[in-house]
Structure formats: structure tokens, C-alpha cells
Amino acid sequence: MYGNKGRGWIYQRKNRTEGNFPIYVIQSPLICDNNVKISFSVLDEEAKCPFSDVETGAWYEAHVATAKKLGIALGKTNITFEPFSKLTRQEMMTFTARALVKIGRYYYPNAEEIHNLLRNYSDENEISDYDFIKSIALNVQLGIVGGSKQDDVRWMLFPKAEIKRGEVAKILAIAMEKR
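-> C-alpha cells emitted (179 positions)
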């Protein structure tokens, strides 16, 4: 995305950070339905940001606050967001899954479905916690991500790897088609 930082758009950057992601989601057509904006798709300039490491007046503050208010971005802890930390693949898939579930058309897979969706990935045990697990499973179920084939039988998701620009674009583009 390109644009004016003052208007909430982001400049093209080499790295995606936690501070950038709420802007991708809040301004994305992912959260619009046939040109009718769903109530949570509007940036809430009045939302209070609960994170101590998001500076008041920062260009991304309202987006982070809106994403938190909507339950899309929960923060690294209850009081920190780490807006300049690198974004991992599992974090991106989790933000995306939360946005899709918030729309109301999709639901997280149950435990058996999660097992069946992730069992073919040799790195499924590297996924950090249940919120990431169910979110990654939903991304796999919807065909948003498929992983990388390592050899004839092994696939990998690389959940803790830093996400690349092309991967962000692909995930958002496919997620927008799913809305």
C-alpha cells in the first residue's frame, strides 16, 4: 500500500511490523461486503489504545486501537503491542483469521478438523499456542495458505518465520476473495 502516513496509509517498507498490520486489515476490502461497510470496517478514531508502547498520536495509533477493540489484534501482552517488532507468519494468519471470523461467515475448525488440516505439516508442533493453531488451521481450510513442499511427503508452514511482503499481499488478496 502507498499513501500519506497522516491519513493512515502506510509507505512501502521493507519489513512488516505489528504496527503496520492493523492498517492492512482496517482499510482492506476484506471487511466490506458488496460495497456495504460492515460496522467494524470503519476506523474508530475515538478508540482508546490500551497499549503502553503505542505512542499517543502515532500514525498507526487509531488503527491499532480499532483492531484491539474489534478483537483482531490482542497485543503481545495485555499492555504491550510491540508495534515495531517483526510480524511472523503465524501472527499474520491469526490476524487474518480473526478478521474473517469477525465478519461472521467463517468459524474456527473444531479439534478433529484442526488435527486433520495440520497433520501433514511437519512443523505443526512449532505453532506457539492454541489461538495460532486454530487460526492457521482456518487459513489452511480456506485455502489462504498451503505451506511449502519440502520433499515428496513433507510440507511446512514456517509459523515463526518473518512474513515476506509477497506473502502478506497473497494472504490479503485471497482473504478478500473469501469475504
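The chain has six helices and four strands.
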